[in-house]
Amino acid sequence: MTKPPKPSLPPSPSRPSRIRIGSAPDSWGVWFPDDPRQVPWQRFLDEVSGAGYEWIELGPYGYLPTDPAVLAEETARRGLRVSAGTVFTGLHHGPGVWDRTWAHVAENAALAQAVGAGHLVVIPSFWRDDRTGEVLEERTLTAEQWRDLTGLTERLGREVWERYGLRLVVHPHADTHLDGEESVTRFLDATDPEAVALCLDTGHYAYAGGDSVKLIESYGERIGYLHLKQVDPEVLARVVADEVPFGPAVARGVMCEPPTGVPALEPVLAAAQALDVDLFAIVEQDMYPCEPDVPYPIALRTRRFLRSCGV
């Protein structure tokens, strides 16, 4: 398979960095296609543009319009472009889930392709319910499950590229089988770089004790995408000690506004810039649920902070 080319960075004298900054519905408290506690999609688009972002992700399929013509018109008139779609998968369950997984992936990938995105973010399924904490399966994968996860993810990466021209980037996530250094490096070592890249979410990686700078320096050629996020170390210590599932941990404020948490984003961005590749860095501050007037001021401050970091 030919390695997908990375999009070229539009020339801009005000942006010496090859990192393109964006945000996502997640930073507006959006976790579901439809939820009365979430802001309407029109308000999200208005505010993300007003905060100074030019790139967005699609978020949960069905939150933003799924008609490509409507979505293209609504984003374009606000000066926005789409960087990626997002899907959850459970490929460690083996070939039996392939057809169902592909149907879900295909509708997301088709929309992402139609509006000009170049990436598809893939998040592994949770080993415990992210709201109730109910244990859904073993926390550790068997050797057979690892083979299914890596092999089927490679297949998915090739199919998504060949059919939709999107680069697959796998997103380690709290309360999934891919979270910290041990599982992430094992996954990277076992997968084909031509088929699978990594979406490094700095907050989720820190949540599991990982060092984002070390990962970028060690596996730079596998970093295909970034999510910028921080955790509050005091809240994190309490939720880990109490074995709080991810959803309630977010409600407690475990993911916090930069630059108040960890990891420090300046060295992460410096390490990413040292790779000398075009790279999306999407702000994705988990905030569910949240009051509708909370996200926009945070987005303004976060964009201003990231400019001070040179991006």
UniProtKB/TrEMBL annotation:
Residues 1-21 are annotated as: Disordered. It comes from the Bacteria. This is Xylose isomerase-like TIM barrel domain-containing protein. SUPFAM superfamilies: Xylose isomerase-like (SSF51658). Residues 46-285 form the Xylose isomerase-like TIM barrel domain. It holds the Pfam family AP_endonuc_2. Residues 1-14 have a biased composition (Pro residues).
